[in-house]
Amino acid sequence: MSSLLAALIRADHRGFLLLNRKLGHRELDPFFYLGGHLAVVPVVGLATAIYLLSDLSRSRLEHGAVLLVTLLVVWGLKKWVARRRPAGVLSARRPWGGGLPVSDASFPSGDTAQAAAIAVLLIRQGGWGPWVALYPVAVGLGRVYLGLHFPGDVFAGGLVGGLIAWLATLAL
Question: Which of 27, 28, 79, 116 is the most exposed place for a label (fewest CB within 10 A)?
Answer without folding.
Answer: 27
